[in-house]
Protein backbone atom coordinates (compact mmCIF):
# COMPACT_ATOMS: atom_id res chain seq x y z
CA UNK A 1 0.00 0.00 0.00
CA UNK A 2 1.37 3.38 -1.00
CA UNK A 3 1.64 6.04 1.71
CA UNK A 4 -1.07 8.68 1.45
CA UNK A 5 -0.21 12.00 -0.12
CA UNK A 6 -1.65 15.00 1.65
CA UNK A 7 -1.92 18.41 -0.02
CA UNK A 8 -1.41 21.30 2.37
CA UNK A 9 -1.97 25.03 2.06
CA UNK A 10 0.88 27.55 2.53
CA UNK A 11 -0.48 28.35 6.01
CA UNK A 12 -0.50 24.67 6.92
CA UNK A 13 3.04 24.27 5.60
CA UNK A 14 4.16 27.11 7.88
CA UNK A 15 2.58 25.33 10.85
CA UNK A 16 4.35 22.13 9.79
CA UNK A 17 7.74 23.89 9.85
CA UNK A 18 7.04 25.19 13.33
CA UNK A 19 6.22 21.69 14.53
CA UNK A 20 9.48 20.34 13.13
CA UNK A 21 11.44 23.13 14.82
CA UNK A 22 9.76 22.20 18.09
CA UNK A 23 10.54 18.53 17.48
CA UNK A 24 14.19 19.44 16.87
CA UNK A 25 14.41 21.47 20.09
CA UNK A 26 12.73 18.79 22.19
CA UNK A 27 14.80 16.06 20.55
CA UNK A 28 18.04 17.94 21.25
CA UNK A 29 17.09 18.40 24.90
CA UNK A 30 16.29 14.70 25.22
CA UNK A 31 19.54 13.75 23.47
CA UNK A 32 21.61 15.88 25.88
CA UNK A 33 19.70 14.73 28.94
CA UNK A 34 20.03 11.06 27.97
CA UNK A 35 23.75 11.52 27.31
CA UNK A 36 24.40 12.91 30.78
CA UNK A 37 22.36 10.14 32.43
CA UNK A 38 24.33 7.45 30.60
CA UNK A 39 27.68 9.20 31.08
CA UNK A 40 26.99 9.59 34.81
CA UNK A 41 26.29 5.87 35.18
CA UNK A 42 29.36 5.01 33.07
CA UNK A 43 31.73 7.22 35.07
CA UNK A 44 30.22 6.32 38.46
CA UNK A 45 30.72 2.61 37.76
CA UNK A 46 34.32 3.26 36.75
CA UNK A 47 34.92 5.33 39.88
CA UNK A 48 33.47 2.68 42.19
CA UNK A 49 35.76 -0.01 40.75
CA UNK A 50 38.69 2.41 41.05
CA UNK A 51 37.92 2.90 44.72
CA UNK A 52 37.55 -0.86 45.21
CA UNK A 53 41.09 -1.36 43.87
CA UNK A 54 42.37 1.69 45.80
CA UNK A 55 43.49 3.49 42.65
CA UNK A 56 44.16 7.21 42.63
CA UNK A 57 43.37 9.89 40.12
CA UNK A 58 41.03 12.79 39.37
CA UNK A 59 37.50 13.04 37.98
CA UNK A 60 36.84 16.03 35.74
CA UNK A 61 33.78 16.95 33.61
CA UNK A 62 35.06 14.89 30.67
CA UNK A 63 36.80 11.82 32.06
CA UNK A 64 38.55 10.03 34.91
CA UNK A 65 42.33 10.48 34.80
CA UNK A 66 44.61 8.14 36.74
CA UNK A 67 47.86 9.31 38.32
CA UNK A 68 49.43 5.88 38.71
CA UNK A 69 52.71 4.95 37.06
CA UNK A 70 52.63 2.11 34.51
CA UNK A 71 54.30 -0.24 36.98
CA UNK A 72 51.56 0.27 39.57
CA UNK A 73 48.86 -1.29 37.40
CA UNK A 74 47.90 -4.98 37.32
CA UNK A 75 45.75 -6.99 34.93
CA UNK A 76 42.51 -7.23 36.95
CA UNK A 77 42.59 -3.54 37.82
CA UNK A 78 42.98 -2.57 34.16
CA UNK A 79 40.16 -4.84 33.02
CA UNK A 80 37.94 -3.85 35.94
CA UNK A 81 38.13 -0.06 35.70
CA UNK A 82 37.85 0.09 31.91
CA UNK A 83 35.16 -2.57 31.68
CA UNK A 84 32.91 -1.36 34.49
CA UNK A 85 31.39 1.53 32.53
CA UNK A 86 30.47 -0.49 29.42
CA UNK A 87 29.03 -3.33 31.54
CA UNK A 88 26.86 -0.85 33.45
CA UNK A 89 25.73 0.66 30.15
CA UNK A 90 24.79 -2.76 28.74
CA UNK A 91 22.51 -3.38 31.72
CA UNK A 92 21.08 0.14 31.66
CA UNK A 93 20.46 0.03 27.91
CA UNK A 94 18.61 -3.28 28.16
CA UNK A 95 16.42 -1.98 30.99
CA UNK A 96 15.68 1.29 29.15
CA UNK A 97 14.75 -0.43 25.88
CA UNK A 98 12.65 -3.07 27.61
CA UNK A 99 10.82 -0.35 29.53
CA UNK A 100 10.22 1.58 26.33
CA UNK A 101 9.10 -1.40 24.24
CA UNK A 102 6.80 -3.06 26.77
CA UNK A 103 5.29 -0.09 28.58
CA UNK A 104 5.80 3.27 26.89
CA UNK A 105 5.75 3.00 23.09
CA UNK A 106 1.95 2.92 22.91
CA UNK A 107 1.60 5.85 25.33
CA UNK A 108 1.84 9.51 24.50
CA UNK A 109 4.48 11.82 25.91
CA UNK A 110 8.25 12.30 25.79
CA UNK A 111 9.33 9.63 28.28
CA UNK A 112 9.41 6.97 25.58
CA UNK A 113 11.78 9.00 23.40
CA UNK A 114 14.01 9.70 26.42
CA UNK A 115 14.19 5.97 27.18
CA UNK A 116 15.08 5.23 23.57
CA UNK A 117 17.84 7.84 23.50
CA UNK A 118 19.21 6.36 26.73
CA UNK A 119 19.28 2.94 25.05
CA UNK A 120 21.03 4.42 21.99
CA UNK A 121 23.65 6.21 24.10
CA UNK A 122 24.26 2.98 26.02
CA UNK A 123 24.78 1.20 22.72
CA UNK A 124 27.33 3.83 21.71
CA UNK A 125 29.05 3.56 25.11
CA UNK A 126 29.76 -0.10 24.32
CA UNK A 127 30.08 -0.72 20.57
CA UNK A 128 31.00 2.79 19.46
CA UNK A 129 33.39 3.09 22.38
CA UNK A 130 35.23 -0.12 21.52
CA UNK A 131 35.85 1.14 17.98
CA UNK A 132 36.80 4.66 19.11
CA UNK A 133 39.05 3.47 21.94
CA UNK A 134 40.84 0.97 19.71
CA UNK A 135 41.68 3.81 17.33
CA UNK A 136 43.08 5.89 20.20
CA UNK A 137 44.45 2.98 22.30
CA UNK A 138 42.55 4.10 25.39
CA UNK A 139 39.49 3.29 27.50
CA UNK A 140 37.55 0.17 26.53
CA UNK A 141 40.39 -1.00 24.27
CA UNK A 142 42.37 -2.01 27.37
CA UNK A 143 39.72 -4.62 28.19
CA UNK A 144 39.97 -6.52 24.92
CA UNK A 145 43.75 -6.06 24.80
CA UNK A 146 44.42 -7.34 28.34
CA UNK A 147 41.58 -9.85 28.56
CA UNK A 148 42.34 -11.71 25.32
CA UNK A 149 46.03 -10.84 24.87
CA UNK A 150 45.93 -11.96 21.24
CA UNK A 151 47.64 -8.98 19.68
CA UNK A 152 46.71 -5.79 17.87
CA UNK A 153 45.22 -7.55 14.82
CA UNK A 154 42.55 -9.28 16.92
CA UNK A 155 41.82 -6.01 18.75
CA UNK A 156 41.24 -4.25 15.43
CA UNK A 157 38.97 -7.05 14.16
CA UNK A 158 36.87 -6.88 17.35
CA UNK A 159 36.64 -3.10 17.02
CA UNK A 160 35.47 -3.34 13.42
CA UNK A 161 32.88 -5.96 14.39
CA UNK A 162 31.66 -3.63 17.15
CA UNK A 163 31.29 -0.85 14.59
CA UNK A 164 29.29 -3.16 12.32
CA UNK A 165 27.03 -4.14 15.21
CA UNK A 166 26.40 -0.47 15.94
CA UNK A 167 25.50 0.14 12.29
CA UNK A 168 23.11 -2.82 12.28
CA UNK A 169 21.45 -1.83 15.55
CA UNK A 170 20.94 1.66 14.19
CA UNK A 171 19.28 0.45 11.00
CA UNK A 172 17.02 -2.08 12.70
CA UNK A 173 16.11 0.42 15.41
CA UNK A 174 14.17 2.52 12.89
CA UNK A 175 10.73 1.08 13.72
CA UNK A 176 11.30 1.62 17.43
CA UNK A 177 12.40 5.21 16.79
CA UNK A 178 9.39 5.97 14.60
CA UNK A 179 7.04 4.66 17.28
CA UNK A 180 8.57 7.04 19.81
CA UNK A 181 6.95 10.11 18.18
CA UNK A 182 3.43 11.35 18.81
CA UNK A 183 2.94 14.16 16.28
CA UNK A 184 0.86 13.17 13.25
CA UNK A 185 2.55 15.94 11.25
CA UNK A 186 6.06 14.72 12.08
CA UNK A 187 5.09 11.11 11.40
CA UNK A 188 3.50 11.78 8.00
CA UNK A 189 5.47 9.80 5.40
CA UNK A 190 5.56 12.74 2.99
CA UNK A 191 7.56 14.59 5.68
CA UNK A 192 9.94 11.72 6.40
CA UNK A 193 13.12 13.48 5.23
CA UNK A 194 12.32 16.52 7.34
CA UNK A 195 11.57 14.25 10.26
CA UNK A 196 14.96 12.53 10.00
CA UNK A 197 16.76 15.88 9.92
CA UNK A 198 14.83 17.45 12.80
CA UNK A 199 14.61 14.45 15.13
CA UNK A 200 17.92 12.69 14.40
CA UNK A 201 20.53 14.81 12.64
CA UNK A 202 19.87 18.02 14.55
CA UNK A 203 19.87 16.37 18.02
CA UNK A 204 23.10 14.50 17.22
CA UNK A 205 24.99 17.47 15.79
CA UNK A 206 23.57 20.29 17.90
CA UNK A 207 23.30 18.16 21.03
CA UNK A 208 26.86 16.88 20.61
CA UNK A 209 28.13 20.43 20.05
CA UNK A 210 26.32 21.65 23.18
CA UNK A 211 27.82 18.82 25.25
CA UNK A 212 31.30 19.60 23.92
CA UNK A 213 30.97 23.33 24.62
CA UNK A 214 29.57 22.68 28.10
CA UNK A 215 32.71 20.72 29.02
CA UNK A 216 35.36 23.13 27.78
CA UNK A 217 38.22 23.41 28.61
CA UNK A 218 38.10 19.86 29.98
CA UNK A 219 36.75 18.16 26.84
CA UNK A 220 39.10 15.28 26.02
CA UNK A 221 39.84 13.63 22.70
CA UNK A 222 38.53 10.44 24.34
CA UNK A 223 35.05 11.88 24.88
CA UNK A 224 35.05 13.86 21.64
CA UNK A 225 35.60 10.73 19.55
CA UNK A 226 32.82 8.99 21.49
CA UNK A 227 30.43 11.80 20.57
CA UNK A 228 31.36 11.43 16.90
CA UNK A 229 30.88 7.65 17.01
CA UNK A 230 27.19 8.21 17.70
CA UNK A 231 27.02 8.93 13.98
CA UNK A 232 27.53 5.21 13.35
CA UNK A 233 24.14 4.68 14.95
CA UNK A 234 22.32 7.84 13.86
CA UNK A 235 23.17 7.53 10.14
CA UNK A 236 21.78 4.01 9.55
CA UNK A 237 18.89 4.87 11.88
CA UNK A 238 18.01 7.76 9.58
CA UNK A 239 18.30 5.55 6.49
CA UNK A 240 16.07 2.95 8.12
CA UNK A 241 13.45 5.60 8.87
CA UNK A 242 13.52 6.76 5.24
CA UNK A 243 12.94 3.19 4.04
CA UNK A 244 10.03 2.53 6.40
CA UNK A 245 6.50 3.58 5.37
CA UNK A 246 5.28 3.23 8.96
CA UNK A 247 3.47 6.46 9.89
CA UNK A 248 1.06 5.54 12.70
CA UNK A 249 1.11 7.14 16.12
CA UNK A 250 -0.91 7.04 19.34
CA UNK A 251 -4.67 7.56 19.12
CA UNK A 252 -4.78 10.89 20.96
CA UNK A 253 -1.33 12.46 20.78
CA UNK A 254 -0.50 15.50 22.86
CA UNK A 255 -0.51 18.86 21.03
CA UNK A 256 2.95 19.73 19.70
CA UNK A 257 4.62 22.11 22.15
CA UNK A 258 8.06 22.94 23.45
CA UNK A 259 8.85 20.81 26.50
CA UNK A 260 10.42 23.66 28.43
CA UNK A 261 10.76 21.48 31.51
CA UNK A 262 12.98 19.04 29.61
CA UNK A 263 14.99 21.87 28.03
CA UNK A 264 15.57 23.41 31.45
CA UNK A 265 16.46 20.02 32.94
CA UNK A 266 19.04 19.36 30.21
CA UNK A 267 20.64 22.77 30.80
CA UNK A 268 20.63 22.30 34.58
CA UNK A 269 22.17 18.84 34.19
CA UNK A 270 25.01 20.23 32.07
CA UNK A 271 25.64 23.15 34.45
CA UNK A 272 25.46 20.99 37.58
CA UNK A 273 27.81 18.39 36.04
CA UNK A 274 30.40 21.06 35.20
CA UNK A 275 30.18 22.81 38.56
CA UNK A 276 30.39 19.54 40.52
CA UNK A 277 33.53 18.35 38.71
CA UNK A 278 35.34 21.65 38.14
CA UNK A 279 37.93 21.80 39.57
CA UNK A 280 38.49 18.02 39.17
CA UNK A 281 37.75 15.84 42.19
CA UNK A 282 40.71 13.75 43.44
CA UNK A 283 40.21 10.20 44.69
CA UNK A 284 42.35 7.44 46.07
Automatic annotation (TrEMBL):
Keyword Chloroplast listed: no
Signal peptide as annotated in the record: none
Keyword NAD applies: no
Domain of life: Bacteria
TM ranges: 20-41, 73-101, 113-136, 156-178, 194-214, 226-246, 258-276
Keywords: Membrane, Transmembrane, Transmembrane helix
Protein name per the record: DUF2306 domain-containing protein
Species in which this protein is naturally found: Hymenobacter negativus
Lineage: Bacteria, Pseudomonadati, Bacteroidota, Cytophagia, Cytophagales
Amino acid sequence: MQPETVTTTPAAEEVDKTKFLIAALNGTALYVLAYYVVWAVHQAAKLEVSRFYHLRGTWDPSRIVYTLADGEWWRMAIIGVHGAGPVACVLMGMVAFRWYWRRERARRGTLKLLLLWIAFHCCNAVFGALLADTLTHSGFWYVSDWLLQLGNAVDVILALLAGMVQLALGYFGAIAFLQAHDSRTVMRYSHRQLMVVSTLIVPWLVGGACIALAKRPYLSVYEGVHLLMMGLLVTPLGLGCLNEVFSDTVERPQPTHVAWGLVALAVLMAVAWYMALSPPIPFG
